[in-house]
Amino acid sequence: MATEVAGAHGHDEPDHLAPYLSPEAGRGIKGWLLTLDHKRIGLMYLVSTLLAFFMGGVFALLVRLELFAPGRTIMSAEYYNRAFTLHGAIMVFLFIIPAVPGALGNFVLPIMLGTKDVAFPRLNLLSFYVYLFGATFALYSIISGSVDTGWTFYTPYSTTSNTSVVSMVLGAFILGFSSILTGLNFIVTIHKLRAPGLHWKRLPLFVWGTYATSIIQVLATPVLAITLLLLAAERTFGLGIFDPALGGDPILFQHFFWFYSHPAVYIMIVPGMAVASELFATFSRRAIFGYFAIAMSSLGLALVGFLVWGHHMYTSGQSEFATTLFAALTMLVAIPSGVKVFNWTATLYKGSIVLTTPMLYALSFLILFTIGGLTGLFVGALSVDIHLHDTYFVVAHFHYVMMGGTVMAFVGGILYWWPKMTGKLYDESLAKKGWFFVFVGFNTTFLIQFIMGSKGMPRRYYDYLPQFETYHKISTVGSWLLLVGFLLTAWALIKSIRSGEKSPPNPWGSAGFEWQGTESPPVMQNFRVTPTITRGPYDYHLCSDEELFDGFPEDAEK
Amino acid sequence: MASAHADSEHAEHAGHGDHPPYLAHHFDTPEQQFDSAKLGMWVFIVTEILMFGGLFVAYLIYKGQEPAIFIEAHNRLDWKMGSVNTIVLLFSSLTAALAVRSSQLGKKNETTMWLTITILCALAFLGIKYVEYSHKFHDGLLPGRFFTAHLPEHAHNGHVLPQRASMFFALYFMMTGLHGLHVVIGMSILGWVLVRNHRGQFSPEYFTPVEIGALYWHLVDLVWIYLFPLVYLVG
Amino acid sequence: METMQLPPQWSTFARQTDWLFYFIYWLSVVLFVGIIGVALYFVWKYRRQPGVKAEPTGHATVLEITWTVSPLALLAFLFHMGFRGYIDMTVAPADAMEIRVRAKKWAWDFEYPNGGHSNVLHVPVNRPVRLTLSSEDVIHSLYIPAFRVKKDAVPGYYTTMWFEATQVGETDLFCAEYCGAAVGTTEVSEGDPPVGREGNRRHVGHFSMITKVRIHTMADYNTFLESILRPPVDPATGREATPEKWGEILYRAQQCNTCHSTDGGAMTGPTWRGLFGRQRQFTDGTSATADANYIRQSILQPNSKVVQGFNGVMPSFAGTLRDNQVDAIIAYIRTLN
User: Fold this and answer.
1) CATH number of C97-227
2) Chains contacting B with at least 3 CB pairs below 8 Å?
3) At residue B111, does pLDDT exceed 70?
4) How high is the pLDDT of residue A558?
């Protein structure tokens, strides 16, 4: 489909051998907004998703602040309902789904594949603008009366709420297309644009993870699209598909919604696992243990993820048979997740481990994801879930997976690839302080919520009975620590842009393809000459010292 | 990345001259570009099928719940017009395939002809759909709160539909409406291909857009092939 | 028995559920300490040291197969135990007592076999009770932590749940499915759950759909059943309340106060102050005088006539209020002129 007309380099033509951030690679604001370069698009995604994270974070802090004390603290019940809805919707649709694939995937994936760009650069830019367009709809709903349905849009609440549901739903619908286009682009890129010698068994695990994610995006998102379209049509034309008064079925909405949104959980977590695999290998200076198992477990999660949506509905009134079937299948999720955790741990064995900030985030990921996974066993077991369903236990469980998993990996990934993206080093000690507050703050906020939940505190409550007050207070204090941690991390990154030292091509001494063959920052076409791959991405034992010890001079001296 | 060989073929800055004009910078060979485009379209088709799949599932579930009402409601559809539309779409799929073939053989004028016929078929399809829709509007066979066919003035052969039949029409309009939207999109794509063909941008070496456009058109046809018997014939 | 992690065990399900909870709990602790302990030990033991290189990664197929396959047995066991507990919760004994539950924004209505109603759930101890749930508006979910039971009330469906309480006393009952909140605040009155307070007003919504379960001995329970058919006893006089007084009690007990004020201010619905005998303009253009018939219709078929400036969102109280209760409410409204 691409029909770039080649010719002599005109003045507007980017110079393919200039560093991608330089003016020669694309001038001025136009050089960014109209760029077809995957790295620039990746950076634009990074900025937008971080803004979304900030916005979703503000709503989270407001929610926690309201819950600090019983009774009204800072807002009315109506506004509290809007605040947690916007927190969820922004975090899910605007941040966590596009974050790793859009920002890190766009930047790193083509370089890892040894190619100049993704298969469809224009589609890539389009998907970014579709993202912005969808985000506009979603944000419009905030100023036009906001949304109070919860991010799950359950009918018939969502069809009767007199808030701005249609605009938010259309926003999510449009964002879904952005997600589909990104996934489609990556699938084709991985299939068709690998450098010579890069066969499937040499693909970096980040690529495998992204591949699995893309498959889910392409298969699951359209079902969400049609569901949300039906919901919007239901509100606009009174279709009645989900309205019991007209013969419709509100539980069908839940089936449709979770048919997407459960796989979407893997759209969120698998990229995080993919980043973590890269971090563990680089900072253990050792090939990842069980490479094949980790790669296949990503695909396994993608597959099993499609079969377990009903476990969100144990108490909904779906048939007992369906509930039992979903409960049995749900147990299977533990297998690929467990395989990954075991393999990462084994990777550390006899490594040469460097505790850089990205590695601290990777270890946090391992710890917090393990907690998230193990608490999944509680809510997976039928009778126990009946008690825990829709309580803070579930809130804590998915925050441990989504935030303790994906967000930790995302921040770790940003720091890890930061020198490659910007050509600048960041202040490690400042970033480590940030990590400390994030890690401690996260656990303070959410560990207590497991207890609160198993004691019977339901979720989405504006206020609570006196017996839960202490738990809520601790949790809210944790959210402030988290804020400090993220502000410190943001400051480390801003400082790096303003006054960071110039980064060598391979500051971490990684054997990864994205570090070995490129400059920091890479040139517009990534590689000066098309690389030929002759080894795997983690073959530290095959690398010469010069290839690895760019970043740790004390190793080179030895 | 142990070695990076400076093969002159891959040394990009020098290589622009040997690239055919249609080959994008980041592809090595026209075959790679063609395969990528084709795979991309196939993946997109899978996405589309899952989207319609959701509607088909909803239809089957509600049909299972109210089989009698659905049968009664589907009798109000005009299966003759539906059949004509099926033939029109099937024929247009054939002409789309013929357009790809003639483009492959470099017969520009023939490609123009086949593409034009395909687009005319699409227009005919939409025209017939318009007639069908206006009948439904007239008879009050509309979804949800616009449904008035249960009122005596809309009796059909002395027989009125129950209020709950509005569900059938909700699904009917969602399915055919979404499909109609795809017909419009497909038409636009084929129109764009037609313009480019007219400008002489295709050759036996490069006819990817024709192939991709036709592939999309086959999807539009395929959805209808399932939709028509399900809604018009089985009910 | 109340523990660090779970509420007191007040139903026959609680022990079985808690056993599985604590089994998974200790299993998780062991696995977590095991895995993370080993990982952190490796991080320390194999920290980068000058001159020491990482060893190339080998293969350990047996190990890999072991940790892929062996969890299956454990998972099957967890599923089995969860399934057993769940099946027990699904099938109510044939002799279970029936209580009908109607959920609406934001109150519960419990109807007992004798036709009486209450907003607090009253059940006998040591007797299986089967609840049949429905909802009049959106999805709600009835959750009693001390019983370890939860079930959604879905509009257009009947759902059922059952339990057998093992302890006389009082415990919390929550709505677990998010169902929105009212616009603005309402006056606080006796018996309201202690949530959503803002001075002497309170916010109402999903979070305030909290009530109690009172578990009685069989004798007390029978007394309770009789009491709900008559007007309550006014503690001041020691006699049954007058219709006006009963109406005022129902005004709060039936949560009319979440939408209708008695001080003249408009909330989700029109105020009751000065309502009786006033001319009403409706959204369909008609009008009528607010007499007893009109008020009765507004309670039983609330959305047949909607006053201008309001939305037809009030649930019907047909089947919830008996005739003498409707009379009492009308009597109360008359006192507000």
Assistant:
1) 2.60.40.420
2) A
3) yes
4) 41
Answer whether A233 sits within 8 Å of B146, measured CB to CB. Answer: no
Q: How many CB atoms lie within 10 A of CB A236?
A: 10
Is the preceding omega at residue A521 within 30 degrees of 0, hence cis? yes
pLDDT of residue A112: 95
Alpha carbons within 13 angstroms on the beta-carbon side of residue A544 total: 5
B-chain CB neighbours of A219 within 8 Å are: 46-47, 50
CATH number of the domain where residue B228 is located: 1.20.120.80
What pLDDT shows up at residue A340?
95
Task: Specify if B54 maps to a domain.
Answer: no
Of C31, C150, C198, the CB nearest to A71: C198
Dig out the tokens for C276 from the structure.
């009786």
Question: What's residue C60's pLDDT?
Answer: 87
> Which fold is adopted by the domain C239-335?
Cytochrome Bc1 Complex; Chain D, domain 2 (1.10.760)
Which amino acid is located at B10 in the chain? H
CB-hemisphere CA count at 13 Å for A522?
A: 29
A66 touches A82 (CB < 8 A):
no
Statement: residue B11 has pLDDT above 50: no
**Residue B230 counted as domain residue:** yes
Structure tokens that stand for A292 in this block: 């094949």
Contacts of A among chains (3+ CB pairs under 8 A):
B, C
Q: What is the DSSP string of A338-389?
A: HHHHHHHHHHHTT--B---HHHHHHHHHHHHHHHHHHHHHHHHSHHHHHHHT
* Number of independent structural domains in chain B: 1
Interface confidence (ipTM) of the complex: 0.92
Domains of chain C, residue spans: 14-47+59-90, 97-227, 239-335
- What pLDDT, in 10s, does the model give residues A394-428? 999 999 999 999 999 999 999 999 999 999 999 99
3-state secondary structure at position A103: helix
A77 contact residues in C (CB cutoff 8 A): 181-182, 196, 203-205, 207
Interface test with C, best of A461, A465, A510 (most C CBs within 10 A): A461
Contact B12 A116 (CB under 8 A): yes
Which of A115-124, A357-366, A397-406, C253-262 has the least mean pLDDT? C253-262
C-beta atoms of A234 and B144 within 8 A: yes
% of chain B beyond a pLDDT of 70? 89
Quote the tokens at residue C173: 């009952």
Contact between C7 and A455 using a beta-carbon 8 Å cutoff: yes
Domain architecture of chain A: domains with CATH: 23-557 (1.20.210.10)
Q: Which residue of B has its CA nearest to A6?
A: B21
Q: Which residue has the tokens 């979770």?
A: A258
Q: Is B60 among the domain residues? A: no
Using 50, 70 and 90 to split pLDDT, how confident is the model at B8?
very low
B211: distance to nearest CA of chain A, Å? 10
pLDDT at residue A10 tops 60? no
- The interface residues of chain A toward chain C in range 264-293, judged by CB-CB distance below 8 A, are 284-290, 293
Q: Which chain B residues touch A530 with a CB distance below 8 Å?
A: 4, 7, 10, 12, 28
CB contacts of B144 in chain A (<8 Å) are 234, 237-240, 243, 246
Q: CA of A230, closest CA in chain C: separation in Å? A: 18
Residue A256 has what pLDDT? 92
Q: How far is it, in rounded angstroms, from Cα C333 to Cα C337? A: 8
Residue C227 burial (C-beta neighbours within 10 Å; 0-12, 13-18, 19+): middle
The shortest C-alpha distance from C57 to chain A (Å) reads: 6
Burial of C160 (0-12, 13-18, 19+ CB in 10 A): middle
Quote the pLDDT of residue A284.
Answer: 93
**Bridge-partner residues for C289, per DSSP?**
C279
Verify whether the Cβ–Cβ distance C39 to A344 is below 8 Å. yes
Give residue A101's pLDDT band: very low, low, confident or very high (50, 70, 90).
Answer: very high
